[in-house]
Each structure stands twice: as C-alpha cells, then as structure tokens.
Amino acid sequence: MNLVIVGLNHKTSPVEIREKLSFPAETIGEPLRKVTRGYGLNEGVILSTCNRVEALGVATDVEKGVWQLKRFLSEYHNIPLERLDEHLYSHSGEDAVRHLFRVAAGLDSMVMGEPQILGQVKDSYGYAVQHDTAGVIVNKLYHKAFQVAKRVRTETRIGESAVSISYAAVELAKKIFGDLSGKAVMLLGAGEMAELAAKHLLASGIRELLVANRTYERAVEFTRGLGGTCSAIMFREFQHYLKHVDIVIASTGATSFIIRPDQINEVMRERKQRPMFFIDISVPRNVDPLVNNIDNAYVYDVDDLQGVVASNLNERKAEADKAGLIIDEEIEKFYRWVKSLDVVPAIIALRRSCDAIRKAELERGIAAAGELTDKQKKVLEAMTSAIVNKIIHHPVTHLKKEANRVEGDLYVDAIIRLFDLDVNSGEAKKAGGGEE
Amino acid sequence: MGDFFFYITAIAYALSTLVYIAYLFARKDGVIRYAEGILIGGFALHTAALIVRWAEAGRAPVATLHEALTFFSWITAALYLAVLFKYRLRVLGVFVAPFALVLLVTASFLPRQALSLPPALASYWLPAHVIVAFLGNAFFAIAFFLGVMYVIQDHYLKSRKLRGIYFIMPSLEIIDELNYKCLQYGFPLLTLAIISGAIWSETSFGSYWDWRPRQIWSLITWFLYAALLHGRLTAGWRGRKAAIFSGVAFAALVGSFIVINLVSGGAHGLLR
Q1: Distance between CA atoms of B105 and A280, rounded to whole angstroms?
Q2: B132 and B66, same structural domain?
Q3: B122 plus B36 within the same structural domain
Q4: Residue A387's pLDDT is what?
C-alpha cells in the first residue's frame, strides 16, 4: 500500500494559485473518477477548501503516484506543471498519513486547532465514498483521521482558544476590559464575520449591542436574528453613539476610513478616557490605524488579529507537541492494521486457523471412535487435510492474485474478518519467505 | 533568636523571588503556586521575627532604620497577601517578593542593636505614626507595581505583538481599578501619617511643624498623590497616564525616604 498526497496550501501558495486549483463540491465526481481511472490510482480523495487543495491517492508505486497526481492537478486545471510545481508539496507513506491526520486535527490550518477543517475533510471523504473512489485503505485511513482529530480535540487544549479570528478578538477584549458584562458593542456593517463576533460577544454577556448598516432594514433583520439586547441604529447616526460603546467592530464595504483620530479624540474626552477597542475586520480598513495612538484606544485589523492568533498558538506550543504524540501513536496503530493487510500473513493465518480446527476435530473424532489402527488414523489424517486444503485452495489463490490489484486490500480485510483471523505481522514476516 | 528568623525569612523571600522569575518564563500555574507557598511561609517567619524583636526590645520594633525597613517589608507582604486572597491577582507577587527581599537585605546592612528610645521620643504616637505611614507606603508600593504592570500590558496591547508575560497578566481594567483603589487607601493613610507625625513632634519637641526636610518631603509627596487623585476624579486620568504618574509619586516617596534616612541615620535623624 503506497499512500501519496499532492497539494498546496496557504503556506506554499498565494490565493491566486489556490483559487485556480479549487474543485467545486457540486462537480467533484468528475475529477474523482478521473484521478482513479485516468491516472491509474487505486483510490482517490480530493480536499478543496479556500486554504488548501490536496489530492490523495493509493498508488502501486510511490514515485509514479506522486507524478500522476501532479499531472492530474496540472492537466485538469490547464496550468502548466512548470508553473505549478514550485507551490506543490507531496507526501508519501507514513508522511502522508501524518499529514492527513494533522490536517484533520486542524494542526496544519492557518488558525491552528480550528474545527472547520475537520468538517471539510469529512466532506471530501464523503464525496469519495459517494463516487466510489474510496477503497478499504481510504475508509480505514479517514476513520482513523476522524478519531485522531477527536482525540486531539479532547485531550489537548489546542482548540480551546484561538479557534478563530472572532474568538481571538473576544479574548483580546477580555484582556482589555476584564469582565465583558456591562460593556456595550457597536457593529458597523452586518456581515457574516461581524455576526460571528457578535455571537461570541453575546455569549460573554455583553450588556448591549448596537447594529448600524448601510441598509437599515438589514440591520433590523440582523438584530432580530440575535434577539435580546440588540438594537439597530441608522448608519449615518453611528458617530453619536460611539461614546456609549466600548467595543466597535467595523466590517463595512467603505473604501475610506470611517473612524478617524480627530473624531475618537473627541469621543474619548466625552467618555472620560474609558478604554475603547476597535476591531477592524474590513478590507480595505474602516478604522484609521492612527486611532491606535490615542491613549486607551486599541485598534486591531485583520492582520493584527491573525498575529494574535499566531501568538496564542505559539503560547500553546506545548499543546501542539502533545497533539504530535497523539498523532504518532495513531500512525503506529494505523500501520499495524496496514501490515495486517499484507496478503502473506493473512494466508498463513488462514491456514493455521483452519488446521487448528481440523486437528481439534480429528482428535475428538479419534477419541470417540475408540480403537483405531495406526493406518486408519493416517487415512483420517490425510483425508481431513485434503478437505481443508481443497476448501481453502480457491480463496488462497484468489487472495494471491488479487493482492496486487485495486481491491486487493478489500479481499484481505474480508478474509481476516470472515474467518476472525489473528494476523501477527511480525511473525508472518519471518515465515513469509517460505510461503512465496 | 530574632536574627535567626530574620535570615530564614530573607532566604524564603529570595527563594520565592527565584521561583517567581522562573514563573515568568514557564508561565505554568504549578510554578506560581510554589512561589506563593514559599512567600506565605516566609511571611509567617517574618511575623515571628517581628514578635521576637518586639519582646526583646520591649517596645514596637519600628524605631531604628533597620527595624523600620524590616517592618515595611512585612507590611507590604501582608498587604499583598490580602490583595491576593481578595482579588486573586497572582502575578503581582512577581514584584512584591523581590521588593520585600530588597528591603530585608538593605535592613541587614544596617546596625541591628535595639536602641532604647530617649524619653523625649518615647510616646504612643511613635508606633501609631510609623504603622500608619508604612501601611500607606505599602499601598503606594502596590499601586506602583500595578502601574508597572499596566504600562507593560498596555505596551503589548498597543504594539499588537502579544508575547511572554502578556498571557499571564490580568486585564487592563482590573489593574487600573486596583491601582485607583490603592491610592484611595494610601492617600488618607499618608495624611494621617503626616498629622500623627506632627502631633508626635508636638509631644516631643513642643512644635507641630518646623519645616524639617522630612516634613517638606512628605508634603511634596502628599501634593503629588493629591494631584493624581484629583486628576483621576475630575480630569479622567486613567490607564497609562495615571500609572506613570503613580510611578513618579512613588519615586518621590522612596527617594525622600532613602535620602533623609541614609543621611540622617534613621528615624528622621532623631535618634542621634
């Protein structure tokens, strides 16, 4: 079994390349079929998110597999491989398994430990199952990956903080204000990101939420969705409310700064210098960075927040190390299972198991029959052996034949389960030579 | 016996300081728990040292400079432990433990013999004055440490580069609030100290106020803290500005104490 992964992510490539390589979910069946049929891979999975595109395949030969996947990505998207190659990374064998586990656990994400990626990995596996490109290896591998992600989530604190930018913003607010109950928040612009941040803040018990949006109706609708202590205000009046709020989240489409230093200087005087926290998640920015120079005013834009997320994670490096140990452990378990899929040990185990049954039954039969001559015993011995050998002859030949084909592992897995075999791969390796 | 407790206390404070420093790097709860345990143990020994000293001298052990510094160290530690139990402000110990240690080490270099007071100075006003004054100073010291913490944390938040001790610091608003609270307690105590000092001066020398350097300096400090409180109440001084100002006021306080006592040899030069 040779697992290969080829792909690119936010670290290796700019967004212009990533968006060209993406596979929309609606039409993912076609590339999946192509990668398995057209490029000679045994099994295939395609993961496509805004931060990464990866193709995973099970190949008969590692180098060929990597080459095929690269060719597939380049040819499918009509991008010459020379242009693409510098952005691509490839993993094979144990490296590939580790990579997949790390991705599923969110360790390879831009925001380390974020939970979204697990859902996306699950989806990618779901498509492979749906389009019949997931075989026994992929099945086992992905179920293991989901397990790993779950273990990392529950056994380390990686996901606890810094889950997302909006969460990081709330954490920052707590570092400035301490308790957030009693604080008032203003949303400028009612987009998706703002909604997420608002939900986090409401969960931390803020007193009041004001929503200003270019279209007033949208603001009203938005506050209805959140209920409770939220109210909509007219966008052109937002400046009059600034002195009453402690946190401002700006995410409008405005092309110039809508919050300026002179204005905030005035506001700070009116609110007796009580701290203000500006979270500017809009691009281009809505809050003039010079506002940060005003005493007791703190301005964070998207890049700053990403930096905060990164340093939160750095602080949690110990947790990442712990996650690494979990992954190592699970890789070992996975490979123990993979080795059990080797056809030779399975055949040995099958023979041994059948022979054990034969011997046990033979002894019982001889004991029940009473006085038997040695010759009679020999005949019985030979006869039972012949029966067993004839019964397992076809399964064994088929196993050997199928072992090197696409579904080979599936056969081995089926045999192991049907006969409830105990495959000891280490011992089998030693005996392996004689069998072949 | 008193000396024995004194040195063990100093060793405990030194150990606690080291563990606190380790905590700044490790930032693990387990580490700071050790530092606090050692600090509390040191404080218990410190209390014992004071009691023994009191018994040996037959009067409140606050007369010589050695005694005064030892007492200041003790009351600052006591106040910090009260703050710790009330507000769970654990990081503050990083400042308090070395401060208590430095005071003890300084005291150890000063003459230790327990002088008996000249009758002119022996009065109940002496311990009252000293205790009130040092309790006030302890509040100001803690306000100063909080100010330092505020400036550090504000710097991290403003620069938007969050590293190291940012993660173990309390929120800005809590630091600022406590800083204010310390001033609110410290200022009346400083006022009382000046008044009780004047009364003591009257009972000893027959004059309330004769513009000795000590009195001038305490008046300057009083005005600085009065200005700070006034600014906070009316002009909306807070945060960094207030923190820096409380640092300046505390520097004036410490400076006047060191200069006057080192030049004069303790107890404002009255024991000569």
Answers
A1: 51
A2: no
A3: no
A4: 93
Residue to mutate among B24, B149, B157, with most A CBs inside 10 A, is B157
Task: Answer whether A7's CB lies under 8 Å from A15's CB.
Answer: no
CA distance B204 to A345: 102
Asked if B174 lies within 8 A of A308 by C-beta distance, the reply is: no
Domains detected in chain A: 2-161 (3.30.460.30), 165-308 (3.40.50.720), 338-435 (no CATH)
Written as six digits, the tokens of A42 are 């045994």
- Among chain A, residues having any CB pair with chain B shorter than 8 Å are 172, 174-178, 269, 272-275, 292, 295-296, 298, 300, 304, 307-308, 311-312, 314-315
The pLDDT mean for chain A works out to: 85
**Cα R_g (chain B), whole angstroms:** 19
What domain count does chain B have? 2
* pLDDT tens column, A55-83: 999 988 888 899 999 999 999 999 998 88
pLDDT in tens, A285-298: 889 999 999 999 99
Tokens of B19: 């563990």
CA distance B269 to A102: 71
Q: Which domain holds residue B139?
A: 117-272
Are B80 and B90 within one domain? yes
Peptide bond into A284 cis (omega under 30): yes
Res B5: pLDDT? 87
Judged by DSSP in three states, A386 sits in helix
Mean pLDDT confidence for B134-144: 94
Token couple for A384: 């039972």
Q: Is the CB of residue A8 less than 8 Å from the CB of residue A17?
A: yes
In this prediction, residue A97 carries a pLDDT of 93
Is the minimum CB–CB distance between B160 and chain A shorter than 8 Å? yes
Domain match, B141 and B212 both: yes
Last residue of a domain, one of B59, B83, B115: B115
Q: How does DSSP assign chain B, residue by residue? A: -HHHHHHHHHHHHHHHHHHHHHHHHH--HHHHHHHHHHHHHHHHHHHHHHHHHHHHHTS-S-SSHHHHHHHHHHHHHHHHHHHHHHH---TTHHHHHHHHHHHHHHHHTS----PPPPTTT-STHHHHHHHHHHHHHHHHHHHHHHHHHHHHHHHHHHHT---GGGGGS--HHHHHHHHHHHHHHHHHHHHHHHHHHHHHHHHHHS-S----HHHHHHHHHHHHHHHHHHHHHHS---HHHHHHHHHHHHHHHHHHHHHHHHHHTSGGGT--
